[in-house]
Design brief:
- The chain is an all-alpha fold.
- It contains 4 helices and no strands.
- The longest helix has 102 residues, at 70-171.
- The termini are far apart.
Length: 208
Amino acid sequence: MTLSVQFYTMLAMVGMGSVFGATLDTYNRFLNRKIRKRWLVFLNDVLFWILQALFIFYILFSVNFGEVRFYIFVALLCGFAGYQALLKEPYKKLLEKIIQGCISFYKFLVKMITHLVYSPIKWLVLLLVSLIIGLGKGVWAVAGFLLKVILAILKITFTPLLWVVKLISSLLPKNIKKFVEKLYNKLAGYLFPFVKVISTKLKKWLKR
């Protein structure tokens, strides 16, 4: 390994030590160990360390084809120590500002979608439903009123006919009256149940 490769390797490992410190602080900020279950924290820790090891080895492989020397660990430790001493607090403040900015942007986006998309669609749907219900009630009321008017007209129309029939029946001979009564009773036995059912359903429909 040439001196230039060793120099670049040391610089890369110092940088990776600092990156590891920043990544560790970011990981702890989002993990919230106090509210997580222990097995979940353990699993996340294992995955974190595996990913960090793979990433550091990838950088090392890119610089010196993966050749491991003792000074590499010293460079990593120096980079991590330098981050802890100089960059930790500024980075944590910057990270917190970025997180709060993302949260504020998310809340703004939710409010904008709520006011510009959800609320208009909601009120439009409610208006359409109200119009349909009101139109249905109006049609139902008009139909009930027309039916009542038709029944009243039929009653007015057929009442004089009933009077005429009663007058004629009073003038008929007894033999013919008996024949007509028998015929009427037979027809009534067949038709009255049907008429009764129809009239009952009609009354219930009108009372709604």
